[in-house]
Amino acid sequence: QVQLVESGGGLVQAGGSLRLSCTASGRTFGIYTIGWFRQAPGKEREFVSRISGMGLSTYYADSVKGRFTISRDNAKNTVYLQMNSLKPEDTAVYHCAASTSWRSTMREYDYWGQGTQVTVSS
Fold first, then answer.
1. Which residue from 86, 75, 111 is spatially nearest to 11, judged by alpha carbons?
2. How far is CA 113 from CA 25, 62, 64, 66, 122, in A?
């Protein structure tokens, strides 16, 4: 069982930056691919980024490529999402999730955090 807790959300002006953290319980954090997903009001949840267990592979949605950077510190059981050049359309609740497979679809992620709100004002 893995418990995930997100933090770091908040209100920021367009063009600003935030760093989200996803901290996990458990001793086997390094075996999990961690993904970030977001859900805006009235919209479906969408993929943002993911990172492999040892941090050697990363992947980004086209909408955030070049602006967001995902990283992890397994000694701290934490994955980070550095978000730069934020846009109003980045406003959403951001969730992290854990999967034992790199190629999992969103539905195949096993564990989910409760989410953290990111609001970008124009």
1. 86
2. 11, 23, 21, 25, 28
Burial, 101: exposed, middle or buried (Cβ in 10 Å; 0-12, 13-18, 19+)? Answer: exposed
Q: Is the dihedral of CA 120, 63, 94, 77 positive or negative?
A: negative
Going 61 to 51 to 36 to 116, the CA torsion angle's sign is: negative
What DSSP line would sit under the chain, residue for residue?
---EEEE--EEEETT--EEEEEEE-SS-GGG-EEEEEEE-TTS--EEEEEE-TTS--EEE-TTTTTTEEEEEEGGGTEEEEEE-S--GGG-EEEEEEEES-TT--GGG--EE---EEEEEE-
29-57: average pLDDT:
96
Other residues' Cβ atoms within 10 Å of the Cβ of residue 29 = 22
The strand pair at 4-7 and 18-24 is best described as antiparallel
Nearest to 79, CA basis, from 68, 87, 90: 68
For residue 116, name the pLDDT band (cuts at 50, 70, 90): very high
